[in-house]
């Protein structure tokens, strides 16, 4: 309320303010000192015997606790949020397992299947983790697709076993409404003793990135560090989403491979029949199909028809790349489920 409003009304204004579990009544009163207007504020701490009975006081504190809990919860997953980490956790010291868990290929789910698919993937991951943690453990959504897990007073053997159980169960769990999304997570964990959680998180984060190269296990302290140096080139492709290029022209396949191979695993098919075989072999491990239309034996439209029949089209995005630029071809491709249609010849930056 503005000072002149208080002066004009010539009456006292009051409000309640909260500090932790304490409740204060704040009175604002208009006064004049040497002819100048001022607002004087007075505080009064409320307890069970002041203006409110014990039952009413308890209800008020309960409402405040609920508000604080909502403030520290992620609206999507129900896990604690980054604010909770910053306010309550990062400077804590004590014996605990500190874990960073990253959802693999999350950006791809959002970009190719929509944000609802990404949301459902995160919700599913959190639901699985909750099955394997105690009431004393803390699950925090640390970033968009990263989670921080704190496991107080856990020994090293159970620590590694628990993380690998979580990893295995997530891989076995389907995302509701998107059953062909194949979930996987990369997990890095360390044991904290005298350091702060913030310091332990930095170490766990490095192990999480190491785990992305070795998909079959969570990377925790005590594991042989040498694997980080062995067969690096052999394992680098594990990090890359897989793209299937379907084109009867070897030159076109080689061109697309040259553009994309640094960031993607590339598999090829020279006609629709081979494309179907690759689909049967790799299934939902294919992140994207780049599809030509005019091909011998089985053309691109027949591939799209097959994918609709087998219900692949909703799970594996298809981008058509073709020299055919008639409205009929473009319309048919979109009607059959293609997410985009790129005319050849194309600017390589568009594909990339």
TrEMBL record:
Keywords: Phosphoprotein
Matches recorded under Gene3D superfamilies: 3.30.70.270, 3.40.50.2300
Domain Response regulatory per the UniProt entry, residue ranges: 242-352
The keyword Cell wall biogenesis/degradation is assigned to this record: no
Superkingdom: Bacteria
Domain GGDEF: 94-223
Molecular function via GO: diguanylate cyclase activity
CDD domains: GGDEF
Signal sequence range: none
A GO BP annotation: phosphorelay signal transduction system
Modification 4-aspartylphosphate, positions: 292
PROSITE patterns: GGDEF (PS50887), RESPONSE_REGULATORY (PS50110)
Function field: May play the central regulatory role in sporulation. It may be an element of the effector pathway responsible for the activation of sporulation genes in response to nutritional stress. Spo0A may act in concert with spo0H (a sigma factor) to control the expression of some genes that are critical to the sporulation process.
PANTHER family per UniProt: DIGUANYLATE CYCLASE DGCM-RELATED, REGULATORY COMPONENTS OF SENSORY TRANSDUCTION SYSTEM
Record protein name field: Stage 0 sporulation protein A homolog
């Amino acid at each position: 309320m503005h000072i002149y409003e208080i002066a004009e009304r010539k009456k006292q204004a009051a409000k309640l303010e909260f500090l932790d579990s304490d409740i204060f009544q704040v009175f604002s009163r208009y006064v004049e000192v040497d002819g100048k207007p001022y607002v004087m504020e007075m505080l009064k701490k409320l307890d069970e015997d002041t203006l409110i009975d014990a039952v009413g006081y308890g209800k008020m504190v309960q409402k405040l606790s609920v508000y604080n809990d909502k403030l520290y919860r992620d609206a999507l997953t129900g896990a604690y949020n980054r604010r909770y980490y910053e306010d309550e956790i990062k400077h804590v010291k004590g014996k605990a397992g500190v874990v960073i868990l990253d959802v693999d290929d999350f950006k791809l789910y959002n970009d190719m299947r929509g944000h609802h698919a990404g949301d459902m993937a995160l919700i599913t991951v959190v639901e699985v983790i909750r099955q394997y943690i105690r009431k004393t453990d803390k699950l925090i959504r640390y970033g968009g697709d990263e989670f921080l897990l704190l496991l107080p007073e856990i020994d090293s053997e159970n620590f590694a076993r628990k993380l690998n159980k979580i990893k295995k169960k997530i891989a076995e769990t389907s995302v509701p409404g998107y059953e062909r999304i194949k979930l996987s997570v990369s997990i890095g964990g360390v044991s904290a003793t005298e350091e702060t959680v913030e310091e332990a998180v930095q170490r766990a984060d490095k192990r999480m990135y190491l785990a992305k190269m070795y998909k079959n296990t969570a990377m925790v302290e005590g594991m042989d560090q040498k694997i980080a140096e062995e067969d690096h080139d052999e394992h680098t492709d594990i990090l890359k989403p897989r793209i299937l290029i379907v084109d009867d022209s070897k030159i076109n396949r080689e061109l697309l491979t040259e553009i994309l191979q640094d960031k993607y695993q590339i598999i090829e098919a020279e006609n629709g029949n081979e494309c179907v075989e690759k689909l049967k072999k790799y299934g939902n491990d294919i992140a994207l199909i780049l599809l030509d239309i005019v091909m011998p034996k089985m053309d691109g439209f027949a591939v799209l028809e097959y994918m609709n029949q087998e219900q692949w089209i909703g799970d594996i995005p298809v981008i058509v790349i073709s020299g055919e630029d008639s409205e009929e071809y473009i319309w048919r491709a979109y009607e059959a489920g293609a997410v985009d249609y790129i005319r050849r010849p194309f600017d390589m930056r568009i594909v990339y």
